[in-house]
Amino acid sequence: MKKFFFMNSRIINRIGIPFLLLLILNCSSGSDYSKLIKREMATGIIHDSLLFNLKFGQHRMEFFSACWKLNQQGLVSNGPQNESVKYKLPLRPEAPMESEITLLFAGNFNNEKIMTGMDLQFFYTAWSIWNKELQANKLVPVVMDTLKKWYPGNDFIKVPLEKDSTHLLVKIDGNRRIVIRPLDDERIVKAKIDDLRYVLEEKK
Fold first, then answer.
1. What is the pLDDT of residues 98-147, one digit of tens each?
2. How many CB atoms lie within 10 A of CB 138?
3. What percent of the chain has pLDDT over 70?
4. How far is CA 87 from CA 52, 84, 174, 177, in A?
5. DSSP of 1-51
6. Which letter, b or e, does each residue of 187-199 get, where b requires 16 or more Cβ atoms within 10 Å of its Cβ?
7. Radius of gyration of the chain measured on its C-alpha atoms
8. Which of 111, 117, 160, 184 is most exposed, with minimal Cβ within 10 Å?
9. What end-to-end distance do the CA atoms of the chain give, in Å?
10. b/e for 15-50, b at 16 or more Cβ within 10 A?
11. 74 contacts: CB under 8 Å, gap ≥ 6
12. Above 50 in pLDDT, residue 79?
């Protein structure tokens, strides 16, 4: 079988762990952010669907098998170094080609090889350093709107980072948390979706 989608700990360490560390810094028991988590978790609402019928709680091999099938159908392809899955978002009929967005996604798995989250990277396919309209700062509101359409519910809120002037954009609906991190790249907007049931369990 062709090697495909075998994301390893390198991409998780590069994207996932920094997200968790940033969020833990802001999760003091009295913060508005902490209260929001408690309020949403108290609803008992469970959202487990991600992209392409992938779900929280899937085994790692189920994830790889599903991605392999999507690849065979021509819906996705390999990301760089086979560390992620590449998907080009459909363009609206009237949209110019340069507005096409590429998404790279990779599953996060715990020690039991169960998917607890997903890392996302968005960028304009036609990105170039000289085109100011295709830079990451222009893409952030587009990513926010896209994620709100994919995952309806509450809006994004700003969560300030301690000892820093930047903030995270966070959307929480029941157990599902979506985070857009501060920009650290002129091209890429990085986001993460995770299941707070697993996140809170790991913190105990």
1. 999 999 999 999 999 999 999 999 999 999 999 999 999 999 999 999 99
2. 13
3. 83
4. 11, 10, 27, 22
5. --------HHHIIIIIHHHHHHHHHT--TTSHHHHHHHHHHHT-----B-S
6. bbbbbbbbbbbbb
7. 17
8. 111
9. 40
10. bbeebbebbeebeeeeeebeebbeebeeeeeebeeb
11. none
12. yes
Cα angle 96-100-103, degrees, rounded to a multiple of 5: 170
- What is the per-residue pLDDT for 201? 80
Query: Which distant-in-sequence residues (6+ apart) come within 8 Å of 2 by Cβ?
Result: none
**Cβ-based neighbour number of residue 89 at 10 Å:** 13
Query: How large is the average pLDDT for residues 152-156?
Result: 95
- Sketch the domain layout of the chain as residue ranges: 9-202
- Using alpha carbons, list the distances in angstroms from residue 43 to 13, 37, 49: 31, 10, 18
For residues 99 and 186, give the distance between their C-alpha atoms in angstroms, rounded to a whole number: 16
Residue 77 structure tokens: 């392809």
Q: What per-residue confidence (pLDDT) applies to 19?
A: 52
Alpha carbons 84 and 79: distance in angstroms, whole number: 5
**DSSP secondary structure of 123-143:** EETT--TT-GGGSHHHHHHHH
User: In the structure encoding, which two tokens stand for residue 9, read together?
Assistant: 């700990």
Burial of residue 171 (CB within 10 Å: 0-12, 13-18, 19+) is buried
* Neighbouring residues of 109: CB distance < 8 A, sequence distance ≥ 6: 60, 63, 115, 116
